[in-house]
Amino acid sequence: MRSGRTRYIGRAVILGAAIAIQPTDPGAQTPTPTPAAQAPPSRASILRGEYGRYRANNDLLYYHLDVRVDTTKQTIAGKNTIRFRMLQDDTRIQIDLWADLKVDKILLGTTPLKYERELGAVFIDFPATLKKGKSYAIDFYYSGAPIPTGRFGGFTVKKDNAGRQWIYTACEGEGSSFWWPSKDQWRDEVESMDISVEVPSTLVEVSNGRFVKKTDLGDGYTRWDWAVHYPINSYDVSINATDYVHFEDKLGDVTLDFWATPENLEKAKTQFAQAKPMIEAFKHFFGEYPFAKDGYKLIEVPYTGMEHQSAVTYGNGYRNGYGGRDWTGVGISPKFDFIIIHESGHEWFGNAVSAADVSDMWIHEGWTTYLENLYVEHRFGYADALKYVNGYKSKVRNREPIVTQRGIHRSPPQDMYFKGALFLNTLRSVVNDDQRWWKLLHDFFQHFKYQNILTEDVIAYFNAQLGAQLGRDLTPIFNQYLRRTDLPVLELAFNQSEGTVAYRWKADERDFAMPIRVGTADSWQVIQPTTDWKVMKTSLNKDTFDVATDLFYVNVSKQ
Ligand SMILES: [Zn+2]
């Protein structure tokens, strides 16, 4: 998802209090709602966020979501077939479905199962013990009318002002269980999925994965079947239907399918051409497009956009920049379509490499924001990239750490985007060897592709690859940027009569030690400050002694 104005994790009636996080919209910057972010979690958010016994006792294998959307009644009904393997002997599992949707029945084969609902959780009980190592499948039938909520609606069936019928879902904040029964958490993903959606025959329905077939059901409805051949985050699962027109292209073996409304077809043909250089750029850095069997799709929708896996949705108005604006305010953003680059970048970070808890969402957003920067470097050169990434400084708040509490489904502050990207740019400067940096990025992605990981996994990987070379444990650097509020400050104390400068890091991490370039831009000198004072000679004074703050995101204090 892109950063945006306050997005509600849930309807107040269900969560008690909405957990509002994602703050600002470009051009409408509002302060981060820190107090709300630090409020105690509700029972509902724990039920959603905690990887408790009845989730941890099983491993998802497969979903078949099979639903009909009634555009007249604005309802959804159908079933999800859930196949899972038990990791422990047990008689109960947790599946999630919003409290205002109805559970029609849950079957194991032909046997109806008992269940207990608590807020958004459905605890399903089995008549006999499910055995560790064995696989089971249940059919979870449900129905109801999700009421659009939050920024992108979660689940929306509506006619727009022009009278066009839309059905679309975008539920990263609300969660997949907002509109379908699923294991609504981030740690576990199915290995593959089928999606069948019945919509009025006047509509074209596009979901994730590879198109399989469409079937006219003879009752005014057509069923669209899609097959996902990879692990998928449940919030990525998406329905998009309107009177779409389609065009296609290819990049090597990757099929590119584009879906636009008829009146935007010509604009789409021009704008969506940016998908090719985007895929080429990210392939250059990270390797092949990670969902080739499913292909790449770009689908017009009436909201800004979302990284739905292999079915990226697009609502940027067929304009460069972000909503036509210069997103980082330094003249680079108008060179490309922000939504195409950002949301598609999530195919690598977010969809292929996924965070295992929402607390670690910087693995999606910090990395993908950094990918924008890599795209700029690949397409337009290093100078533009450096300008672009530093443009993000104006969006950083430094009011709370990027990594939030685990297990309570609390979205991190928007710093995860911009500070996250600036941190990665800083790490490149710490490595100070671009060949090594590019290889590290590539290998990191390939190592964790199709996995759900935590910040600890990222740190361990970087330490294993870099620690020996750099002669240091990188953990305090990661911790200072991700788990602490304040930026490190390079403290410089000049002694003119001695011709020296004393320097140290002021940081919350006692072991924070990060090299940095100082002196003058045409001949930077690398120094190795720690949190203890060191003294060096310099012919420069307080005014002429510079610090490479465009390469290292730090504050500098001179005395
Ligand atoms: Zn995003």
Describe the structure.
The chain is globular. It is of the alpha+beta class and 559 residues long. α8 (362-380) packs across α10 (415-431). β4 (102-108) and β5 (111-112) form a beta hairpin. The protein has 13 helices and 29 strands. The model is unreliable at 4-36 (pLDDT under 50). It starts with 11 loop residues before the first helix and ends with a strand. The strands form seven sheets. It has an eight-stranded mixed sheet with strand order 5-4-8-2-1-11-14-13. The protein has a five-stranded mixed sheet with strand order 16-17-18-20-19, covered by helices on one side. The longest helix has 19 residues, at 362-380. Zinc ion (ZN) binds at residues 1-2, 342, 346, 365, 368.
The residue-averaged pLDDT reads 93
Question: Which structural class should the secondary elements be placed in?
Answer: alpha+beta
Overall 3D form: globular
**Poorly predicted tracts of residues:** 4-36
| Contiguous helical run count | 13
**Rounded Rg:** 25 Å
Distance between the termini: 42 Å
How do the strands of the widest beta sheet line up side by side? Answer: 5-4-8-2-1-11-14-13
- Percent helix: 10-25%
**Ligands, ions, cofactors:** zinc ion
Counting DSSP E segments of at least 2 residues, the number of strands comes to: 29
| Main beta-sheet strand count, sense and barrel state | 8 strands, mixed
- Please indicate the percent range of residues in DSSP E strands (runs of 2 or more): 25-35%
